[in-house]
TrEMBL record:
Family, per entry: Belongs to the dihydroorotate dehydrogenase family. Type 1 subfamily.
Metabolic or biological pathway: Pyrimidine metabolism; UMP biosynthesis via de novo pathway; orotate from (S)-dihydroorotate (NAD(+) route): step 1/1
Record's subcellular location: Cytoplasm
Protein name from the UniProt record: Dihydroorotate dehydrogenase
Species of the source: Sulfobacillus thermotolerans
Keywords associated with the record: Cytoplasm, Flavoprotein, FMN, Oxidoreductase, Pyrimidine biosynthesis
Gene name linked to the record: pyrD
Domain Dihydroorotate dehydrogenase catalytic span(s) in chain numbering: 1-267
Location, primary (coarse class): cytoplasm
EC number: 1.3.-.-
Binding-site positions, substrate: 28, 52-56, 110, 174-175
Length: 294
């Protein structure tokens, strides 16, 4: 799947590949009311990743449903709508607005954007996270995914809290808070000073977070963060993920997702593994301690 915010084809000209090959499409987070997003510059490159502070520009949920959602549903893959609220009530309202729509397969609760002015970030506050998930749960029977932040002492505890509050899956992880300085102006490179770091630098952080989440919670974990090669995909599965999302890699290689789908197929064939399910079974087997180790 594309990671939320990295596959905005309603603004782009033509897609360079057939999006029906994707497992699902996760759309850019949408807020309840329209908002403009953060002041520019919104992007800064680092030696091993990208800092963004887009700040979720959004047309609001009503315009999204009428004008943007149909563009994604026409692409032929299940559509996952990501929502970002400023309170538990807003998450419930957003989810309620999507609940009756057949074209929405699941809802990802973005509880972890480092670039919007929450009073508190839900993914960093267990009580608030549970309130947001529980209120959203009360507003829909659709699958609910809770997107978590790496910027906490224990992603595992947050995943467990999300599960208890009614999440069906966790998406692990959002970007991590970061900053770059323009050495000529001696000012922060990002208009909002800080942003969220994504790309290759995030992979080891994502691996630890996915491992932590899968060892604390009993719901599927969707791994995201710094994935750009087939080895990265397999590593994220080995850390416990049930599925993966690709973000920044698509910016420097727009064919990253179809390439990785093809490379994963070849990887499985080369290893004589029939399916991703069999790969996951092998991973579980290799991580089960042997009699001597116990
Ligand atoms: C430009 C940009 C915009 C993003 N917008 C969103 C967003 O709207 N909602 C969200 O949940 N995550 C958003 N993210 C975070 C990604 O979905 C993903 O969690 C993160 O970038 C790590 O994956 P990656 O290293 O493969 O990019 C955004 C990331 C980038 C780079």
């Amino acid at each position: 799947m594309p990671a939320s915010g990295t596959f905005d084809c309603h603004n782009a000209p033509a897609l360079p590949f057939d999006a029906a090959i994707l497992g699902a499409i996760v759309v850019k987070s949408v807020t309840l009311h329209p908002q403009k997003g953060n002041p520019p510059p919104r992007l800064a490159e680092t030696p091993s990743g990208l800092i963004n502070s887009i700040g979720i520009p959004s047309p609001g949920i009503d315009v999204f449903i009428q004008q943007i959602l149909p563009v994604y549903t026409a692409l032929g893959s299940p559509v996952i709508v990501s929502v970002a609220g400023y309170s538990a009530n807003e998450y419930a309202e957003l989810v309620a607005a999507l609940d009756g729509l057949k074209s929405v397969e699941a809802i990802e609760l973005n509880l972890s954007c480092p670039n919007i002015r929450y009073h508190r970030m839900p993914a960093q506050d267990k009580d608030l996270l549970q309130e947001c998930v529980a209120m959203a749960r009360g507003a829909t029977a659709k699958p609910l995914w809770a997107k978590l932040s790496p910027d906490v002492p224990s992603v595992g505890e947050m995943a467990q809290a999300a599960e208890v509050a009614g999440a069906d899956a966790c998406t692990v992880i959002n970007t991590t808070s970061a900053m770059m300085v323009n050495i000529h102006t001696l000012r922060p490179m990002i208009g909002a000073t800080r942003g969220g770091l994504s790309g290759p630098a995030l992979l080891p952080i994502a691996l630890a977070a996915v491992w932590d989440a899968t060892h604390h919670a009993n719901i599927p974990v969707i791994g995201v963060g710094g994935i750009s090669t087939v080895e990265d995909v397999v590593a994220v599965f080995a850390a416990g993920a049930s599925a993966v999302q690709i973000g920044t890699a698509s910016f420097y290689d727009p064919m990253a997702m179809p390439r990785l789908i093809g490379e994963l197929d070849r990887y499985l064939k080369d290893k004589g593994i029939a399916s991703i399910e069999e790969l996951k079974a092998k991973i579980r087997q290799s991580q089960t301690p042997s009699a001597e180790e116990v």
